[in-house]
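FIELD: query
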Amino acid sequence: MKSDMPPRTRGGYTSTAPRRRPTGSERRRRVQLREVEPEHPRHDRDETEEVLEGAPGGPIDRCILRSFHKHVATKIWLGEDRAPLKLVNHGAKLQLWELDVDRSRIYETVQRSGLAPLISCSHRVASRPMLSAFCERWQPETTTFHLPFGEMTITLDDVASILHIPITGSMISFSQPLRVDDANALLVELLGTTDVEASRETEQCRSPSVRLQWLRENFSTITDVSSDDDIDFATRAFLLHLVGCTLFADKSATSVGVVYLELFRDLSMVGSYAWGAACLAFMYRQLTTATRFEVRQLGGYLTLLQAWIYEHFPEMFSSPDMAYIESRPRALRWRPHVIPDSLQSLRERLDRLQISDVCWEPYVDHRAEHPFPDIAWFSGCIKCGLVVEPYHPERVLRQFGHIQTIPPRPFAPPRPDRSILLDQYWERWTDHVLIDHSRGRRCHYSGESVAEYMAWYDRISHRIVQPPHLRSGFTTDARSSLSSHTASTSDSRNARALRLLRHVISGGRQQSGDYFWGALNEAHSILAGSDETSASHNTPSPAPAAHSTPSPATRPFFCPPTFVYPPPASVDPPPASVDPPPAAVDPHPSSPVAPPAPAAGPTASTTVYVRSKRKKKT
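FIELD: result
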């Protein structure tokens, strides 16, 4: 039976016209086009791999770091340097809007939201070279820092311990980008401004944003005697100003997006959001953007990043506050300061990092006040509005006290428009934490990993950032001509003594007197040039036992019990050739006493003493 349906063509549509055969000229044209097209077209990835083949230290296997050809570390290997990043830090602006006793109603609402610790723990100073050096080691695919010994990252446990803000609750979600007209409507509805004021402010920002200064000028004068509506408007403005200066500080450096104002519509529900997870996702995205060579600025909450560096690398960068108590956020444990080293010297210091230089579990003493959150084991995506970033705790097991194994491949984050699925995934986070088998065994010593981990990591990572031929110091010929005797100069002795004294100074008053006195004697022996002390420093110390833990007398206060700190070495008495300090001489004696005769010619201080004596007699 003949069908009444029209015939289906090769393109998928139907047509009643008969199929037309191609003419001879059309066939010849198609043959010419096939001959012009290359048989094996080159892709960008192949060209990138050809460029990176000659770069030492680069990833040999690019199955993980697929976008490494766009990374700033690639340009550094090729000889192109980048200046330290400009930092967006609003720590000083928070002090311009204080909530005193006249604004107690606003402060009570802020305290219920869980964001009150951000007012006091924000650092006013940020070190550009230090943060830029760590930013150069960030890899977007893994959302981790790639260091010489493995990967590290900022975890949800770090956010909760450093900032004391909630990391559980509803995910911060936005269905679509906010338009300027919608931003003006939100300002009128939730802040009580007029249409003219809202339009003028968004036009000045040239985006759906408002200036931080505009928020302070219009709402910082409202007190408890104002009306309830005005107090609600001022509370929303303060919260918007707070997150714009801290959690969601963007690279505009002066404004904050109006889209976050929607989160403060119901002031009683502000504390139900996972602010810590949103802050971490936003920080991940800012670090990812700053890994591009053409980017010159770093946003995000820099207090979180800087305090994380202080916690995990205390011997290199930190300056502890002796008055800190564990009930406060860990961001207040440190005195922020600018690192005097240059960016290149910090790159080389990070290139020389070892496992023993890291404090893998810095919050051991903090667990009594702030227990470990189980949500830190969550493996999935975290989100801040339209920003979606993967979160991989299985890549940094050593930060949780477990043996690091070879992790699976990182997963690419889904599209932001699938926000409903991501929210449901986050709400059932207990079903998506790492199981015990994936966590592995507990470490016998800090920083432990499986035997095959470093061989795998050396193949897929970029461990060294500063090229060897561009390092500071001597040239290759001069360095090869140096003998072992010349290498042990006074500069190296001073560096060893200063490093030893830094341990003592950072340890504070909680160290024993024996350890304090022994460290001073050892520093004295180093500066005196004792051969025995120099030999003992050149000889590597034996590895500690697997389960050995130093006593409190030999452990600085900033190192947790799991961080194995070597005991002080045996100290020899000072050599006899070192002269004792001269006795104090009273510049104004009661009876005329002749000054002591110098041993080898009068010094400057003795000459002044004799002249003053003669003037006094005349």
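FIELD: remark
The first strand starts at residue 86 and ends at 87.
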